[in-house]
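agent> fetching stored inputs for the zinc ion docking request
agent> found them:
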Amino acid sequence: MAIREILTVPNPILKKVSQDVPEVNDNIRKLMDDMLDTMYAAPGIGLAAIQIGEPLNVIVMDLAGEGEEKAPRYFVNPEILELDDEFVPYNEGCLSVPDIFDEVDRPKRAKITYLNYDGERVTEWAEGLYAVCIQHEMDHLKGIVFLDHLSKLKRDRAIKKVRKAEKLKAAS
Ligand code: ZN
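agent> prediction call returned; pasting tokens
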């Protein structure tokens, strides 16, 4: 397992559309292990493969609260089958947009289907934080970051802030 570099906006790779994985094999499991390590180290609650530069439809997530036992979830080739008509706001953040948070409205529930770590098909409704996180991560697979749901003004301001912080980090 290894910790990989997380790409940040406005890196053009984050705009790439990811592709389905032909099968859940050991290479994909190795990728998911690395992604989980990278996410825990950040720390964050969700990570899409494109955030470490791999344009594949693979997501890892862990929604366990502080002090709770780890509960990793793995999603390969996820698809949304149905969305709730009701939208709810959530103050979102993203490892590719460090230290920026803003409210995004998304459907309250999402029915999803995906392959798990063992390549088994799972179909279920995601609700609450799970619904927010899976929709946020699945946006990444289409080259969309949460800033794209905000106004251009807010988006430009956020990207400027991230760039400035990266420059400071590189200089220190
Ligand atoms: Zn994100």
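agent> quick read of the result: The mean pLDDT is 97.
agent> awaiting further instructions
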